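QA checklist item 7 of 12: single-chain prediction sanity check.
[x] sequence parsed
[x] length recorded as 167
[x] structure emitted
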Amino acid sequence: MMKQLKNLFFTALFILGASQSVTAQTKIAHVDTNELYTKMPAMIDAQKQLEQLSKQYDSEFKTMADEYYTKLKKYEEEANKVDDKTNQERTKEITDMEKRIRDYRDNAQKELQQKEADLAKPLVEKIRASIAKVGKAKGFNYVIDINAAIFADGTDLTNDVKKDLGF
């Protein structure tokens, strides 16, 4: 029995020692990807493009909505003064306008989302490549996003990645 306990103790000590040497060899750093995404000049330019496009869509949507409400008000005021056939035609016209406005809004949202994805994808890839490059150059095995970490008290590579990206 004593021999088994002794073997168990040495096995546990060996496993603990082996895991300590593996841990000692693993180097982990962190980076703040939110800061990189929000402060990268190219990403800021992309956001400005999206805001400009969004304002354009909003302006066109407002014009369509104003036209719709103007006609709707006029048609409601004149409903008792015109015949049934005219009211039916106007109802169809208003319904068609509503559909065009909804379709425009939906298409504008899709186009904005697609534009955002098109603009962001190469920038995100550039940031990830830079993180990997800096991490390898500094000898780290892993670089984690500080925003996903529960605790991060190690090396912060954010400024090094910023330098690599040129900002």
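[x] summary fact logged: The chain has five helices and three strands.
[ ] second reviewer sign-off
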